[in-house]
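[SOLVED] Need 3D model of a four-part complex

Original post:
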Amino acid sequence: MLASVSPSAVDDPAAVERAAFDALAEMSFAVQDLLGRVADRYGLSLTQLRLLGILRDREPSMLALARRLNLEKSSASGLVDRAERRGLVTRRPGVQDRRTVHVVLTAAGRALVEEAEKALIVPSAELLTALGPPQRRQLTRLLRLVLDRPAPP
Amino acid sequence: MLASVSPSAVDDPAAVERAAFDALAEMSFAVQDLLGRVADRYGLSLTQLRLLGILRDREPSMLALARRLNLEKSSASGLVDRAERRGLVTRRPGVQDRRTVHVVLTAAGRALVEEAEKALIVPSAELLTALGPPQRRQLTRLLRLVLDRPAPP
DNA sequence: TATTGTTATACTCTATAACTATA
DNA sequence: TATAGTTATAGAGTATAACAATA
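Solution:
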């Protein structure tokens, strides 16, 4: 007697998908805002913080860096210019292939990215307060399923 | 006899939190990339698409718009300038308070944002293929718990 | 006086195109 | 010739500060 004759909104697969993507989109803005505010506290843009984060455990060539950041090589070059001017990274000429340039954190750059990393702990904890540890694990599992799916052909 | 003497990585609450935030951060970049690619297909930046999306069912004052986008009022003004130059929005003088200006979609702007909205369906479905409907509902529920939490004092 | 919006200015981020040096 | 990187140029996006109009 409570049967429904048409699929309710929450049971319609398209609506389920839409709701999930909407939540992901909203979350993406919230997370970018959070990251941006922390970067700002250290006088960095989110892009600069991302750059330093990549260099934490890598010394990529300019081209590899551009690919990882999804940028044109000239954009990566400019990004590195600005970070270099601030003493956060240096360029190191490649030895095998002398056309290449590798981008490396300076001591100051490393110190800054490690501080910023620590500064992320409080706001990220704040963001997640609504979830207990089991829910956090569940969220991680679901997100990893989406993120770690092998790229489609 | 398989007892561990120290908390394993996956049981340490700090590690659980860290893993969840890392996944959220990575997802945020993936979603922003997806949104940016769709915007690009319509000759829009992600910011312009966001602007049009807000105006879909609102005619906010410049200041309300700035607040919603988390921008300075001068930045919002410039954003609207560029959208107006492309014929996507117009300014309408306020009637009650004649200091205000309301920002309104044009017919062209509305058509564009509706097309872009439709164009989002395919890539967002693609993104979520790894999850079945029950998992999508679960993900939505967890994200909404985080997003809909009342702002802390 | 306070608020709303615009303008002037400056910087970051990004892309395209032309160029240099090396492979 | 092809590839790695830089430079020149242009435009979007953003902020701060000074200003005009209205409240």
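Edit: Residues 45, 47-48, 71-72, 74-75, 78-79, 82, 97-100 of chain A lie near DNA strand C (CB under 10 Å from a C1').
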